[in-house]
Amino acid sequence: MSVFVDDDTRVVVQGITGGEGRFHTEQMIEYGTNVVAGAVPGKGGQDVDGVPVYDTVHAAVREEDADASVVFVPPAFAADALFEALDTDLDLVVAITEGIPTQDMARVNKRLSEVDTALIGPNCPGIITPGEAKLGILPGNIFESGDVGLVSRSGTLTYQVVSNLTERGIGQTTAIGIGGDPIIGTSFVDALEAFEADDDTEAVVMCGEIGGEDEEQAARYIAEYMDTPVAGFIAGRTAPPGKRMGHAGAIVSGSGTGTAASKIEALNDAGVPVGDTPNEVADYVEDFL
Amino acid sequence: MRLHEYQAKEVFSEAGIPTPESRLASSVEEVMEAVEAVGFPAAIKAQVHVGGRGKAGGIKIATDEDEAREYAEDILGMDLKGYTVERVLVEAGVDFVNELYVGVTMDRGEGKPVAMVSEQGGVNIEEVAAEEPDAIAREHVDPAFGIHPYQTRKAVYDAGVPAELARDVSSVLSTLYDLWEDSDAADAEINPLMVTDDGEVIAADAVLNIDDDALFRHPDLAEMEEEAAGDDLEAKANEYGFDYVRLSGNVGIIGNGAGLVMTTLDLVDHFGGEPANFLDIGGGAKAERVANALDMVFSDENVDSVVFNIFGGITRGDEVAQGINEALERFDEIPKPVVVRLAGTNAEEGMEILNTDLVQVESTLESAVKRAVQNAEEVSG
Lengths: 289, 381
Fold this sequence. Notes:
The structure holds 2 protein chains of 2 kinds. By secondary structure, chain A is of the alpha/beta class. Chain A has 9 helices and 13 strands.
């Protein structure tokens, strides 16, 4: 079992003919992902690595029965690509694109609230169910199939924590990078809800970072609704207020909200142990299993 | 990107929001000409990107020529929280009976824009926000429609703004929302929106911060960006296109991916060191970019030791190793000890390539950070 994606997921890649789209399509196929179509306006009829390309997402869904998309479209056109994806009946859209204007995402977010499709990202590494499907840019070789669900705002931090788990022989059901932007689709709470409902997920790791209040919301959700044990990590303890630490969303505001301390406290209050190092997080998970 | 007050006021004024008459001045003579044009009392306001300018002495009200000269001499060239004041805005003083607050920003939690009005504007708005959150009326806006007229009225009445001002303040809020949207702003704020004794409203300060990710479609605003007069290293990072934040410690940090770099900083702190910087080389970095990153960190005279932590997804370990070798081979002597940890894509190939005469290699994040902290202690004595 897994959440959101598995080996039945039929993937359309938006922006498949671009440099990144092409490279990662090859990587996804090599990993065993069922990539059934590409969508690029004006490139219909071509193929990439044997994958047929359509001019519209609608055509890709209609002709190839795709049920999820991965978006590699550049930031200036990404919001339009997301609206297009949300206008079909895809179950899931994964937006890898970094640098989408925040006001564009507010409009996408509004549309998202009116449809049944789930969005992961933007500015995220994607989602992987080890051994079954990878939608995004995560390096497949560090993951192993197992019992732990993982949700994170950061890509490379996810890889670090996963390698700490895999090294100890602790595999993963599904790992989700939800992205580092101020406005994202799937939140920590949405991901935790999915893991709680998944019978095979025996423990969950959530990796948060400074900025916003998503981790605090997640803590309230865990305290109230979760039986599955959760271990946490929060990046940015040493971040000074008012400075953006790389991610657009990773900023401690002048008034002191969004600090690592407030997030760690909220998680601890919800019974979630928070590691000082990624290795300590793996210790907690080992204790849970 | 933050606009200066004078730039934001130009934008606000063009959109139809009343602002005081003003002139920009960069010398005492220009200030004297400006006060003659705007009259007394005149506000002389430092144009630097620093919060709390007034409390730090960067804003003074001159009532005659002698005071204007004195304040111009005081403020021009002064150091305001690390920024040198090169220009002041000279502005006609406003005789006010009340100060309001009007602002528009993105509410991250809701994923929606929010328009705000308070009857308690002025320098203490952050305290008001913290202690009396109800004193700020908030109206969430559906970004597909923009702000409805009823919403501007509702915010104004909910904030307790007197009825005789409601129409004017609503109109300011509506204009502010539209310009926030049109300019892809992150924040647009007027604090204070002054109320004069004859019932006029006028924007005595102006804040307009633009979403960096949207600058590509606002070339007119992008042009307003000025060289940051602050930290030279941050300016250099800008040139190289790195996400870089300078801190006060002595352990230089380079990594890929914001979350992992932040984690590396936190671990330096955890193991008893002090981080000198945040430097994210981003995904897919090639050799030249790696060399530029090392150049950045070595340019910081506080740095006594460096840790290079790469977890390759789209970044390849062999490319990074190549860049590290190339960068370090240029030196007769390596300026400061460098610890390298490579993991993920092509990490093994990278480890083999690395010239271990030039760098110390560690296999885990924790051991790399510990060693860099130890190096820093040894170098700094």
